Amino acid sequence: xxxxxxxxxxxxxxxxxxxxxxxxxxxxxxxxxxxxxxxxxxxxxxxxxxxxxxxxxxxxxxxxxxxxxxxxxxxxxxxxxxxxxxxxxxxxxxxxxxxxxxxxxxxxxxxxxxxxxxxxxxxxxxxxxxxxxxxxxxxxxxxxxxxxxxxxxxxxxxxxxxxxxxxxxxxxxxxxxxxxxxxxxxxxxxxxxxxxxxxxxxxxxxxxxxxxxxxxxxxxxxxxxxxxxxxxxxxxxxxxxxxxxxxxxxxxxxxxxxxxxxxxxxxxxxxxxxxxxxxxxxxxxxxxxxxxxxxxxxxxxxxxxxxxxxxxxxxx
Amino acid sequence: xxxxxxxxxxxxxxxxxxxxxxxxxxxxxxxxxxxxxxxxxxxxxxxxxxxxxxxxxxxxxxxxxxxxxxxxxxxxxxxxxxxxxxxxxxxxxxxxxxxxxxxxxxxxxxxxxxxxxxxxxxxxxxxxxxxxxxxxxxxxxxxxxxxxxxxxxxxxxxxxxxxxxxxxxxxxxxxxxxxxxxxxxxxxxxxxxxxxxxxxxxxxxxxxxxxxxxxxxxxxxxxxxxxxxxxxxxxxxxxxxxxxxxxxxxxxxxxxxxxxxxxxxxxxxxxxxxxxxxxxxxxxxxxxxxxxxxxxxxxxxxxxxxxxxxxxxxxxxxxxxxxxxxxxxxxxxxxxxxxxxxxxxxxxxxxxxxxxxxxxxxxxxxxxxxxxxxxxxxxxxxxxxxxxxxxxxxxxxxxxxxxxxxxxxxxxxxxxxxxxxxxxxxxxxxxxxxxxxxxxxxxxxxxxxxxxxxxxxxxxxxxxxxxxxxxxxxxxxxxxxxxxxxxxxxxxxxxxxxxxxxxxxxxxxxxxxxxxxxxxxxxxxxxxxxxxxxxxxxxxxxxxxxxxxxxxxxxxxxxxxxxxxxxxxxxxxxxxxxxxxxxxxxxxxxxxxxxxxxxxxxxxxxxxxxxxxxxxxxxxxxxxxxxxxxxxxxx
Lengths: 316, 635
Prior knowledge:
The structure holds two protein chains of two kinds. Chain A is of the alpha/beta class. Helix content of chain A is 33%, strand content 17%. Chain A has one domain (12-290): 3-Layer(aba) Sandwich (Rossmann fold). In chain A, the strands form three sheets. Chain A has an eight-stranded mixed beta sheet, with helices on both faces. In chain A, strands 5-6 form a two-stranded antiparallel sheet. Chain A has a two-stranded antiparallel ribbon with strand order 11-12. Chain A is globular and about 70 Å long. By secondary structure, chain B is of the alpha/beta class. In chain B, strands 6-5-4-1-3-2-16-7 form an eight-stranded mixed beta sheet, sandwiched between helices. In chain B, strands 11-8-12-13-15-14-23 form a seven-stranded mixed beta sheet, with helices on both faces. Chain B has a six-stranded mixed beta sheet with strand order 20-22-21-24-25-26, sandwiched between helices. In chain B, strand 24, helix 21 (585-594) and strand 25 (600-603) form a beta-alpha-beta unit. The chains are: A alpha/beta, B alpha/beta. Chains A and B meet through strand 2, helix 3, helix 5, strand 11 and strand 12 of A and strand 7, helix 10, strand 8, strand 9 and helix 12 of B. Strand 2 of chain A pairs parallel with strand 19 (475-477) of chain B.
């Protein structure tokens, strides 16, 4: 057998990324589409399940890693992003993705979006947005519009919604995109682009909650969404730093549209150095080759650090 | 035997710290050992008072810091008032005579409480409430006072070295007091020059000017407190502070991922690790030989929630990871600490404890956080809490903490405090290789494989798999789970997993050496044992020298608690618990685990550390029958 045929015969299928247990979401949940899209992307990119790490917080969406055959960490509410950043910076050769809901990522974990954008670590955030807290039975999420009253609320929502992609853009995310979970093929296409992007990527995926959000339903979304791919001349990519201001402005215009929700890539800029690149250039040139998780720290029980050289300026 | 206690005090942000470093390094380069601590307000250069109190000796350790010093160097009149009771009979105080006429009231940065207290005192004593009056009072108490007109001296010196600007001249006040101090200590000027060069770092011209100031000023003083003849030290020595010693301990212990959010008094720990990047390595392997230096990720995060979560992520990736914080920051970390317990990830958390509650006394010490460290995090899970007693112990403990976090996959809280963080020392260099770095090896497969990270094991430890290294697929999880790492609420599985996790406690208790659990000092048959934990150690050991027949039990491993060992040491003895909090927490802890009740407790919670004299006072009052002794000294 030649090397090429080995590779072809081993190429994984979406089925290969299914874990041993089935999903536990409500029948019809939008999240099924995202899971399906993700499995497709993993297969298309033939991602190594032992090097791919899915990190989640808490909520219905954060259960997703349990249905996927990759390494994963199902952490605590709101902390998936800093956990993922620590993981990625300790070993930048890993493919790290965060999945979570609007509450997890933009309410309890909101500050970490701001921190992540400023760093531009090379990882991907999938925001599974249904505007409600499903797992605690339907309270208002941070993306639920003001005055809306889905069935679990006893009064209309007194909070206004925040715009997650605007926040992400303002924070410095260098890939901003949107998808819609019932359109699995398109969602897969966008997730794939996000994974391939060099830098911090976020994809807002509208993912209706069939149990608690009886207003922002499939019909509700489908009246509003459209694909940017069909817009003549739409090019969200910053090809030159001079274009950045203009591309951001155009992205913001789309992101702010209250009536029509653009699906597709809204902004993409790979000219911004990633945190890993910044670290290598500012702190430690050996970082890409010898990051924290890979370093030998002892030899036969003896620390590899040369204490006397390290502290040479302090020895008397 | 040479032993001199000293104090340098002045307006914060105006050179007190530099002066202290100059003096420490000067006596250090003359072959002596030094240690002491910095006291300061939560303020930068707004005029509050700051001081350094320490001890020089011809041996290590130099002995305790008492309630009064033999040599006090006051950079301004404010310092005279602050330390009017802090110089011993026969000791020497240096001050600026040009401030003689200044009144107590005119120093607006003295706490109003102190102004009222001193005014009352001066009235009672018939002392004029001025700098001169305060100095006269000190003289009446047997203190020798060396008064110099600082500005005039500097003007004269300035003329000789070509500096005339009053602003520039005022910057020499730190060197002036150090030069006077060094003269009083009989230290040749060349050592002062070394101190100056070390403290001022790269500023060449400034160093030269200060050296000239030192040389000129030194000639003005003829009195002597002591004669520090330059000597050849017995051993290789190191100059560092507590923050730095712990920081370096972690680096030596293999920590390569450090995340933090700024908070006093912890930040100098991660910042030292950052400043020292990249770290020189021994040519242990061909690869390291070629690289010469290795890096570490030192990450300032957006908050403490992120700091510990990032450290947890890095731990999962296989890096030895650590974070450092103080009480308020650890509050934000609580939920993740609990997750580390459940998910079984090892992170070192250095807790630089300070006086609380809430923002409390951001720059003052306290041992308020013992229970807080033991019980932080909801639910029950194995963790380690280790308290270090002094700077040397803290260095070694940092290495051990890194080992244990890695080996047992639990959160390890290394409990230290503000007192230690700002303890500066010239001391024997530790043997950095005396603590073995024990790195458990991950399981690595040839072929990709699904594995159970939470296999039920006998010793309770998880099998070690690392992403990208093991060729294993597995799930890490914060919910109760099955061996595969997926949520499972089956009653039988819940109990099995719970038991498995808690078995780590037995494993840790079996493997952690006794000397890391408790240390006992003094006669084996002592009738009375002083029990304490943390940084009271040097002061208690010093006091013990004057308390024949009294023992001292230092509690080190606070969780899991070594009940049997503690019982063995305390059973049938009279116990006096000495610690820096209100409720005498360690006495309650000992009672909870051993049933042994304290015969007496001595507590201090005014933001100041327990001094050696405090310990003597505590014992004396205890011997007279007092059960609860509240210590109040303010140095």
